Amino acid sequence: MKFGIIGLGYVGLATLCGLAKAGHHVIGVEADEEKLRLLMSGHPPFHEPGMAEVLQEHADQITLTSRIADTEQVDYLILAVGTPSKSDGSCDLSYIEAVLSELNTKHKIVIRSSVPPGTTDLLNIMYPSHTFAIVPEFLQEGRALADVMKPHRVVIGCVNLEVAEDLAGIYGRLGVPLICTTPINAELIKYASNAFLATKISFMNDLSRLADQAGADISTIADGMGLDPRIGRSFLNAGIGYGGSCFPKDMNALLHVASENEIDLRVIRAATKVNETQIEYVLSKLNVEPNMRVAILGLAFKPGTDDMRDAPSILLAHHMVARNVDVIGYDPIATWDYPQATTVEEALKGADYAILVTEWDEIVNLAPDAFNGMRQRRLIDARNAWKFARDPGDVSYEGIGRMQRP
Ligand code: NAD
Questions:
Q1: What fold does the segment set 2-181 form as a domain?
Q2: What is the Cα 237 distance to its own chain's centre?
Q3: Averaged pLDDT, 214-232
Q4: Which residue, judged by its Cα, is nearest atom 32 of ligand 1?
Q5: Span(s) in the chain for CATH 3.40.50.720
Q6: Can you tell me the distance from the alpha carbon of 163 to that of 166, in angstroms, rounded to the nearest whole number?
Q7: What's domain 220-398's superfamily in CATH?
Q8: Which residues are designated catalytic?
């Protein structure tokens, strides 16, 4: 079959690679000239394992272009453009609308972008010449291609029986659980999944404040809770809060849609509030003075990616700079606009604080003597990830919700 994919970001490029690996012909459309140039030379514009190899090995099945019109002959057109937050928190659908306004032929369109409940039904009414289905994407950055090849589930939201059956046949080959449902259910499964994971994180962050006060260890609590299969250990790590391009914006979009429906989603609102204040909670553990130097270790919003969208490190740096503190960052692959060292040692040299913000292996596994070059050896573990937390030698260590050391 022949597929067209509009938008070759994390989702679009992973989808393109997955379809090419499955033997299909794919036309990928990307509007950003620099990204397209990199892709055409065989290089993904971001760090994702396995994609460069697929682009190379399956080059004869892949066409890369900037023109949407080149997708006229495809069997399915997949939309993977961004759906960022507007200033009022609602979901900005303008990238999707811009693509639709350029289409001149009838298409079967599969939306893989995350959109608010009701969007696909509305598009079916607004653009009757096309048939829309939504297949929300659940991939995690850093393992995007693996997730596309073997997702935990595929959710197909479609009211057109023929298209739904066709999509079930295509995705059925992945051999994973398949849910065929209405578009509004599919859209909400995606938003609810992200909101639930984000709420798990906020639940632990909220509790971490009590753990600090009461002298408990939130990591041990998470381990104990996580052994219950009804709870599960994932997303129970207290820390600096969630960031990234999905959780904050999808939580905001969900709250916005709810308020339009005159519903107050109190749990989700509270989870958002906890997240917004968690960075202040981390900051309250530092006693910074002007001209101090703070090393921020790990910049990406999570390990395994170079994605800096809504990364907590940026907000943290922003707060520090506002207090006249010198900030220097280190990350194995991500970059930012603040000063950045090329090694951990360089970042730590002369620093008054080291803050672990992204739990890359390299940073988590630092030996206590790696901090010898610091002016003051004060460590803030904003991910509760440093292994030596319980035996840090003569460094001062403070985690989140695990303040009391034996
Ligand atoms: P992204 O910003 O990395 O990629 C979007 C791409 O679309 C960009 O490269 C942009 O240049 C391109 N684009 C925009 N308009 C275009 C047009 N008219 N023609 C051609 N290209 C165009 O975004 P992403 O992270 O891949 O996310 C895409 C969607 O998938 C969002 O709705 C997001 O919420 C959802 N999603 C993302 C993830 C994730 O982990 N990143 C996971 C699941 C779902």
A1: Rossmann fold (3.40.50)
A2: 16
A3: 97
A4: 113
A5: 2-181, 220-398
A6: 5
A7: NAD(P)-binding Rossmann-like Domain (3.40.50.720)
A8: 246
